[in-house]
Design brief:
The protein is mainly α. It folds into 2 domains: 65 residues; 64 residues, no CATH class. The protein is built from 6 helices and no strands. Helix 1 runs parallel beside helix 4 and helix 1 runs antiparallel to helix 5.
């Protein structure tokens, strides 16, 4: 399966980009008072499809890459932030009861998303900070 590494990685990266952009747009719609459009069935189903493809590609990469690549804990840091990102995203898209909390969760989810990308690029738990200091 290693012969498909490049293609799987690009599917993963494309899905990360689509998923993050879709979340940012949906969150912006909620912030602007158009939560119904952000939570409409076609948008939600598209989001589920992209995120399922993203997770599938991630699991495929996990199975074909050597274990030594994950030795410094960057994958654990990334996965922990993914859980936080999903929880914050759910709150930002309408589960939070007040607009102020939704705004705070939206900003925190976007920050988590950017931090996840930094960790993935650096293959280090410090992410962007590691890249800037190295």
């Amino acid at each position: 399966m290693i012969e498909f590494y490049t293609q799987i990685k690009w599917v993963h990266i494309a899905c990360i980009t689509i998923s993050g952009t879709l979340f940012a747009l949906r969150g912006l719609l909620v912030q602007l008072g158009h939560g119904g459009a952000a939570r409409s069935a076609p948008v939600r189903w598209f989001s589920y499809a992209v995120d399922t493809t993203l997770l599938t590609a991630a699991l495929m990469l996990l199975t074909i890459l050597p274990r030594a690549m994950f030795a410094n804990g960057w994958l654990l840091a990334k996965l922990t932030l993914v859980v936080a990102y999903v929880a914050l995203g759910m709150l930002a898209l309408g589960r939070a009861h007040t607009p102020g909390v939704r705004r705070l969760c939206y900003a925190a989810a976007l920050l988590a998303y950017l931090t996840i990308i930094g960790i993935a690029c650096a293959h280090h738990p410090l992410g962007w900070l590691y890249l800037w200091l190295a």
